[in-house]
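re: ur question from earlier - yeah i can do the single chain one, its not a big deal. heres the input i used so u can compare w yours
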Amino acid sequence: MRAAAAGDGPWLDDAAGRLVRPFTVSNGRTRPTVALDLMSQVMATGATTLGYLGPEHAQALDLCRAPVPVAEVAAHLRLPVAVTKVLLSDLVDCGALTTKPPAFHHNPTDRALLEAVLDGLRRQL
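and the output i got, formated as tokens:
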């Protein structure tokens, strides 16, 4: 087993992968209580959370010091988006996070926007 990298915590192992199953993190819940999509922005409010939060909740909260999209939080946590949405909605429910829908200045199906996304994806591959 490798030493955990910064931010990994004891939950990842090179050979075995994730040591805790993703839906265990959300106590088996699959639906968030707050409507979030991949581009919804979440940000910490600075409010103190009451009650127990798991390590993934704490990591998510730490990532949200500045506004960040849900998809980016999921990528940093290395969790499926569905699980990340549940964790983030828990934090919204307890007042630790605030959320706002993505701001589209154009029609989200605008051809120029879709081409820019496609170009970015091609550069990554």
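The CA atoms of residues 106 and 113 lie 8 Å apart. not sure if urs matches, ping me
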